[in-house]
């Protein structure tokens, strides 16, 4: 006898009065007799109303073997839980705190487990089939609301394993998606979407459906085709298709009766609410093998050995957020269920499961990641503090040593071979950028994937324009504005002219990248406005600098813009003396009077600390990447124009994000004593020595290409 509703209470009372019912409860003194133990809350409450015959036991007074097993990842947790299952599992119950753990658990079960009875359904929404259907609904809803479809949704369809494996293998679709990627399109008209699926009959009919009834009909036909195509494949996939088909057929019959479902948008919203209750059932033998179930399915069942997988506080107790407008106090006064009652229901199921068990293993995830933390359930903490005082039970603590999960992947090492060294040597001879050097310093594994293997990021369309693209647009705009002034002195009147022309120049660069439509609305409109403001702030700062220098009788002369440099510089070499070629694009070289400056624009934030180096030029750790890049530029310019080295020149960044800092130059020193660096012949030798140490590390210094755990921006490393 756990929680019962008011109607159930009246029905039981009537049956008792008629002599047709007798109430018997199964509980343990441990939680029944303790007035503050929530597991016995409803039994104690119902005793006041019903005449209940108790079967009170004292199983919790007996010694039990209880183990708390901590894992670091969800995949690791299911792997550990599966490894605890033995072939002799006749009286074993494997309880899952979350249905989503079922598939990874089944894939981890030992091969000798040939029998398993699964008494919990797998959520249809978590299956591959419904995820594909959901994307089709999302696409149709977009088309119904705005007469357009986002390329990101179309791209997700092409990457969907269910849809793409059955319906998207034609070259036409691939070619047309490629064209869209090249043009930076993020939205398509309805006609363009229909043309995209011109050779995909099953999908084309879905795209052409104009009403909710038509959409349901075409989706059901689509699933029938899919079922036939999957006929030779796994039963689980076919079961997902069948359940999805049955669900949509039931709804299709209701559309004509409910006028609110006549629109595709309303239908999609309604389906999203209802589909959460749909499960994909499993068939098994209830009298043999391991029993896999959820906590609710385990009610009134007894196992000698219980494995509880997912005993984290987020899942146990799984209490949904309070969504009622009725205050807690009013609920309590009028006998409405509150979170306290919901937790009591869960608590009884939990303690009842442990009641007759002789051994219990709780497996949970305990990690901390920023604002998101996983920890063991408070029910385990309660057991930890209360049960040892009541019985001779000792709780053991273990940490899972699973090789499953991202921790294992992070430790992957690529042994450096002679072939790798030859490829590095060829790369150094061909031309190495500062970016490549910084990648190696920050994370050797990322360097291996990018520059030795040659992996490239796949082309894709992002609904929000990436920062690298906006940075490129700003650079190109500044080049276009200043290019007519190369070799000339910047004046106040010319700067005012540049400011006047800045917005049209920016718009022209946006247009040249086929981004005018993309940046015309939504979050991308904000990105455009931010670009415009950064450009305006920089030009205003430049104007103020021109005015200030003119008063001092000094003037800014533009020497070059976006100049490419590439050279094998004497003294920059590999350990065996082979030359190293450095390369780079320098945004701007100018003069203030007789002082030469190399300037690199940064669309992101730059602080003086980023460009402050110690007495020894040490770039290890990857935190001085901006300074390294500027010193590469200094070597290249000094080599191309040795006359500049006689008086020396400065190298620095202008941050378009924090322009108030002005031009930030590379400095060198210790403590509070830093001086501005000038690239001279002597200092160039120091730079060469520090760079040669990096090339020594590349060629011979490290045995493995391995992910650096401190690195946060690896494109290809396997990490969380």
Comma- or semicolon-separated keywords:
720 residues, alpha/beta, 7-stranded parallel beta sheet, 6-stranded mixed beta sheet, elongated
Number of helices: 27
Q: What's the pLDDT, averaged over the residues?
A: 85
| Secondary structural class | alpha/beta
Report how far apart the termini are: 45 Å
Oligomer: single chain
Shape field: elongated
User: How large is the radius of gyration?
Assistant: 34 Å
Question: Stretches where pLDDT falls below 50 for ≥5 residues?
Answer: 402-411
The description of the largest β-sheet is: 7 strands, parallel
Helices, strands, pairings?
Elements: H1 6-17, E1 24-28, H2 29-32, H3 41-47, E2 53-57, E3 65-71, H4 74-84, E4 92-96, H5 102-108, E5 116-118, E6 122-123, H6 128-146, E7 148-150, H7 151-159, H8 161-167, H9 171-182, E8 187-189, H10 190-196, H11 201-208, H12 212-229, H13 235-255, H14 264-274, E9 279-280, E10 290-294, E11 305-309, H15 328-333, H16 339-354, E12 359-365, E13 367-369, E14 372-374, H17 378-390, E15 394-399, H18 406-410, E16 413-415, H19 418-430, E17 432-433, H20 434-442, H21 444-452, H22 467-482, H23 492-512, H24 522-551, E18 556-573, E19 579-592, E20 595-602, E21 612-613, H25 625-640, H26 644-647, E22 650-655, E23 663-665, E24 667-670, E25 673-676, H27 681-701, E26 704-706
Parallel strand pairs: 1-2, 3-12, 3-15, 4-10, 4-11, 5-10, 11-12, 17-19, 20-22, 21-24
Antiparallel strand pairs: 6-9, 7-8, 13-14, 16-26, 18-19, 19-20, 22-23, 24-25
Helix pairs in contact: 4-5, 6-7, 6-14, 11-12, 12-13, 20-21, 22-23, 22-24, 23-24, 25-27
């Amino acid at each position: 006898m756990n929680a019962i509703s008011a109607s159930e209470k009246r029905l039981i009372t009537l049956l008792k009065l008629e002599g047709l019912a007798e109430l018997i409860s199964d509980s343990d003194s441990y939680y029944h007799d303790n007035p503050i133990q929530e597991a016995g809350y409803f039994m104690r409450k119902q005793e006041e109303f019903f005449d209940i015959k108790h079967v009170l036991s004292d199983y919790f007074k007996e010694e039990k073997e209880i183990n708390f097993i901590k894992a670091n990842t969800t995949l690791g947790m299911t792997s550990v839980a599966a490894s605890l299952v033995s072939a002799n599992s006749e009286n074993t119950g494997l309880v899952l705190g979350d249905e989503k753990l079922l598939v990874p658990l089944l894939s981890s079960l030992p091969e000798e487990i040939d029998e398993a009875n699964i008494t919990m359904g797998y959520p249809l929404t978590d299956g591959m089939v419904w995820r594909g259907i959901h994307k089709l609904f999302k696409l149709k809803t977009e088309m119904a609301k705005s007469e357009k479809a986002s390329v990101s949704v179309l791209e997700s369809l092409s990457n969907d394993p269910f849809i793409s494996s059955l319906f998207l293998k034609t070259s036409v679709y691939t070619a047309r998606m490629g064209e869209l990627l090249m043009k930076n399109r993020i939205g398509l008209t309805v006609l363009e979407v229909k043309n995209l699926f011109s050779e995909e009959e099953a999908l084309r009919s879905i795209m052409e459906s104009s009403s909710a009834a038509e959409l349901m009909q075409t989706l059901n036909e689509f699933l029938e085709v899919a079922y036939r195509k999957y006929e030779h494949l796994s039963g689980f996939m076919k079961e997902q298709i069948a359940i999805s088909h049955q669900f949509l057929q039931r709804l299709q019959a209701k559309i004509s009766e409910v006028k609110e479902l006549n629109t595709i948008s309303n239908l999609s919203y309604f389906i999203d609410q209802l589909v959460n209750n749909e499960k994909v059932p499993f068939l098994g033998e209830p009298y043999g093998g391991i029993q896999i179930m959820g906590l609710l399915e385990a009610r009134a069942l007894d196992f000698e050995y219980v494995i509880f997988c997912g005993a984290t506080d987020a899942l146990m107790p799984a209490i949904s957020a309070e969504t009622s407008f009725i205050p807690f106090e009013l609920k309590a006064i009028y006998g409405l269920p509150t979170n306290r009652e919901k937790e009591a229901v869960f608590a009884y199921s939990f303690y009842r499961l442990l009641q007759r068990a002789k051994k219990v293993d709780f497996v949970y995830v305990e990690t901390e990641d920023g604002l998101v933390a996983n920890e063991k359930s408070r029910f385990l903490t309660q057991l930890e503090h209360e049960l040892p005082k009541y019985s001779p039970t000792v709780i053991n603590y273990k940490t899972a040593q699973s090789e499953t999960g991202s921790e294992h992947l992070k430790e992957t090492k690529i042994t450096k071979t002679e072939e790798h060294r030859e490829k590095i040597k060829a790369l150094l001879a061909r031309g190495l950028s500062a970016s490549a050097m910084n990648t190696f310093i920050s994370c050797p594994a990322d360097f291996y994937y990018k520059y030795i293997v040659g992996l490239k990021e796949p082309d894709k369309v992002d609904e929000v324009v990436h920062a690298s693209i906006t940075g490129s647009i700003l650079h190109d705009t500044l080049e276009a504005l200043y290019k007519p002034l190369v070799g000339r002195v910047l004046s106040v009147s010319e700067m005012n002219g540049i400011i006047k022309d800045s917005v049209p120049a920016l718009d022209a660069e946006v247009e040249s990248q086929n981004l005018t439509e993309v940046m015309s609305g939504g979050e991308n409109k904000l990105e455009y406005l931010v670009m415009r403001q950064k450009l305006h702030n920089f030009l205003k700062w430049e104007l103020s600098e021109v005015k200030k220098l003119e008063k001092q009788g000094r003037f800014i002369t533009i020497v070059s813009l976006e100049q490419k440099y590439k050279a094998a510089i004497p003294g920059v070499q590999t350990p065996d003396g082979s030359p190293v070629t450095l390369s780079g694009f320098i945004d701007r070289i100018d003069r203030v009077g007789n002082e030469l400056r190399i300037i690199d624009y940064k669309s992101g934030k730059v602080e003086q600390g980023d460009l402050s180096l110690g007495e020894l030029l040490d770039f290890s750790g990857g935190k001085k990447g901006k300074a390294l890049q500027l010193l590469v530029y200094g070597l290249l310019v000094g080599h191309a124009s040795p006359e500049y080295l006689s008086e020396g020149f400065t190298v620095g960044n202008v941050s378009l994000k924090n322009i108030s800092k002005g031009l930030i130059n590379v400095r060198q020193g210790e403590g509070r004593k830093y001086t501005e660096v000038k690239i001279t012949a002597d200092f160039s030798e120091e730079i060469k020595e520090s760079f040669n140490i990096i090339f020594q590390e590349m060629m011979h210094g490290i045995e493995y290409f391995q992910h650096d755990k401190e690195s946060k921006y690896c494109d290809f490393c396997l990490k969380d």
